[in-house]
Amino acid sequence: MTANRLLKLSRWLAGVVATLTLSHPAQAAFDVFACEPEWAALAKEVGGDKVSVYQATTAMQDPHRVEARPSLIARTRAADLVVCTGADLEVGWLPLLLQTSGNGKIQVGQPGYFMAADFVPKLEVPTLVDRSQGDVHPYGNPHIQLDPRNIALVARALNERLGQIDHGNAVYYQARLKDFEVRWQKALAEWETRAAPLKGMRLVPYHKDSAYLIHWLGMEEVMDVEPKPGIPPSAGYLSELLAKLQAQPADAITRGAYQDPKAVEWLSERTKIPAVTLPYTVGGTPQAKDLFSLFDDTINRLLKPRKPA
Amino acid sequence: MYKWAPNGNPVDRNFKFVAEWWYREYAGNMDFDADSTLGVGPVTEPFTAKQQGWYAQAVYQFVPEWRVGLRYDRLNEGSISTGPTGVAIGATVPNYTPWRAAAMMDWSLSEFSRFRLQVQQDRSQ
Question: How far is A71 from chain B (nearest CA, A)?
Fold first, then answer.
């Protein structure tokens, strides 16, 4: 190639490179890996369009029993912040993901590791834990998302963490938090008014995951359908439960959308106590599309339980 | 590996399928010492052996705590090529494909214990 043509070629290449870099400005999207749908929803509220949120599980998956798979590993590799519940809820799969991600930013103790349960007061912290108690969580009940006051606490902590890691957008995140808090406090007042008749309602949840909801609305957890947390009820145990419920009736038997309906329906038919399916998290029911409608739908379903035929 | 569960929730029902295939090739020399029985002196011959095998396994949990599974293992005969001394001592491939098939059912009383019943036909010898 002659010197002239070489010069022309290199100018042309420089032009191409310049155009490419101009049309794709270096915009580092802040990647958030959210373990569960409720934290994905909260990250979107607080982070707005400065964050790109990946939701690792759906509302139809049991968060205790998620199978780690290569696509999840790929996502943790790219994440700037991991937002999960903590309190050992994800102990069956998150540590493996963190280990295989090779991502130093999201390891335990780093700013990129955010466990929501660290920021709320926990209920049912056991004094003694052993295998005979079933799948008891040693740090307390981790199903913290069903008390909207907890969501407010986590939102604040999440905003602080986002501002810490992504200083450039700290002002934006602060504005989004303020906006969210105003709407949330208003919604909270409405929920508490509307849910006043639920006070003292006697529930039989399938798994021990409604403690925070029950605590917030002043309801009562009579017993669980599972004999011990994480152990499915056997036919024999269901008969025992039937006898207990006939002696000591409850107002509703509840289950989260991802939990097995058969046991709950069986009990409901025989005791004539209404069976209520609750969303448990964002996306659990078609009505629970975001954090606000999650609580709207939960309260609606508890206010109008349908009696079995 | 292929995993399936309804709605991605493996608690109630789930299915796992695993299969592996392997291939091995040896190439080198076989050194013989003097052997009066065969009437050969110290000799070195080239030696190559090729072999492949595979297994496939499927396990299905149909209710919580109960699973059934099937597994099949197979080793293909492969091939060995060597010199006359090697052939004389019997370094050849037997005319046989070893295989093994198993069916099982198990019950997990808890995550700490499991009872399994397995029926296996082993034709690897």
Answer: 13
The number of angstroms, rounded, from the C-alpha of A175 to the middle of its chain's C-alpha atoms is 23
Option in B10, B65, B110 nearest A67 (CB): B10
In chain A, the number of structural domains is 2
Residues A125 and A225 in one domain: no
* In chain B, where the domains are located: 2-123
pLDDT, tens digit (0-9, with 9 covering 90-100), for B92-125: 777 788 999 999 999 998 778 899 999 999 987 7
Cα–Cα–Cα angle for A123, A261, A218, rounded to 5 degrees? 30
Residue A108 belongs to some domain of the structure:
yes
Judgement on whether residues A257 and A136 belong to the same structural domain of the protein: no
Q: Residue A294 is part of a domain; what is its CATH number?
A: 3.40.50.1980
Q: Is residue A10 part of a domain?
A: no
Full DSSP string of A167-201: GGGHHHHHHHHHHHHHHHHHHHHHHHHHTGGGTT-
CB A276 within 8 A of CB A254: yes
**Interface predicted TM-score (ipTM):** 0.71
Q: Could you tell me the residue range of the domain that residue A142 belongs to?
A: 30-191
Identify the closest residue of chain B to A231 by CA–CA distance. Answer: B110
Structure pTM? 0.81
Give the 3-state secondary structure of residue B48.
Answer: strand
- For the stretch A35-44, pLDDT in tens is 999 999 999 9
DSSP for A154-166, written as a single string: HHHHHHHHHHHH-
Helices (H), A48-109: 70-78, 94-101
